Amino acid sequence: MPLIVQKYGGTSVGTPERILNVAQQILDSQKAGNRVVAVVSAMAGVTNQLIELADQVSRGNQPTNREMDVLLSTGEQTTIALCSMAINAMGGKAISLTGAQAGIATDREHTKARISNITPDEVHRLLDDEHIVIIAGFQGKSPEGRITTLGRGGSDLTAIAMAAAIKADLCQILTDVDGVYTCDPRVVLDARKIDEIAYDEMLEMASSGSKVMQSRSVEFAKKFGVRFEVRSSLNNNPGTIVTEEHPNMEAVVVRGVSIEREQAKVTIENVPDSPGVAARIFQAVSDAGVIIDMIVQNVSKTGKTDISFTLHRSDLTKAEETLNPLVEELGNSVFIETTKGIGKLCVVGIGMRSHSGIAAQMFSALADNGINIQMISTSEIKTAVTIDESQLDKAANVVHTAFNLSSES
Ligand code: ADP
Ligand code: ASP
Ligand code: MG
What we know:
With 409 residues, the protein is an alpha/beta fold. It is 34% helix and 27% strand. Helix 1 packs across helix 3. The chain binds adenosine-5'-diphosphate, aspartic acid and magnesium ion (MG).
């Protein structure tokens, strides 16, 4: 009998009615002749409310990541119990498991733990006993048995990793949109659903703001060859297949556009242009746990140079505090300038490997609409720019139109 893993996101389980709807879908999947494992998220908004509560009792202090994980994991734990109850009330046979009970072992990095191993014996035992197994997304246990969480959006990772561990025949990510679109359909209203996308494209889109999939989960799927489908939990439309690249995929040059808000930029000016300086700067930032994105260094003509990098706005103060003493050490002409209100826009497609002119086309579309580019970075399958955040939605729309992404290719 085929084995399927389904993941239902926060909106899909956001109300008691929606939980009943999900319960019915899970039962229908079982009645269609499948063994079913369902991974569920916290109800919409719950994780954010828990973070807010932690802030309120911490009086400006940072709560420990260990306690954050104990707190945040309760969101998913609520949903597994409610889903199981709903299925049982409909006459089905369901049992809920926390991440630890499902055998999900992680490292010790609280709030952003990595899955190290899955021992799904209990999941298999329950499936053999004809149960539907409902697993809490986003959580696992450290080697010491402490509760860990897998980073925001981490239920996607639970589903994909569990699908790999139990060798599921199918993995479905059920969400509040019909699939992966050529751009966030809330921003570009005529964005089109993509039928099939390569892991690398999905990975670039996810890691540059397309939050429909958590980027780590796509990385995992690529590494272990887990083909999966993103589709809606609210209707029966076919979704998007995320899979290995095949030659036909190269015919599409730009698969999609992604945007990322709330970015900030740090520029260190007049840095001595000598070996080791960049290493010191970025080592300090990394030691402070700040994740940086684009880096640009100007060519030096005078023995001095400027180094800029982007990061998430919430990390800006930490980065400044870390860099201030270092900047003083580097000499009194060196200073830091910071800018908030930056947004990032990317075009992604594996066809870009064999096509030229994509950057020119993107930059012209932005220029024709009076949008100024601040920084540029490229990879084999991506061209990214930073622009003023207030122009991000307009930029996404003009670039989407410039590459004709609304019409069927
Ligand atoms: P879930 O709660 O099911 O995990 P998320 O909110 O994490 O759902 O992700 C779904 C949302 O991702 C959509 O509502 C959509 O606004 C957003 N999104 C961003 N980029 C894209 C894209 N390229 N295609 C589809 N959805 C996207
Ligand atoms: N509840 C977690 C979050 O909101 C994990 C998830 O939904 O995937 O990030
Ligand atoms: Mg999500």
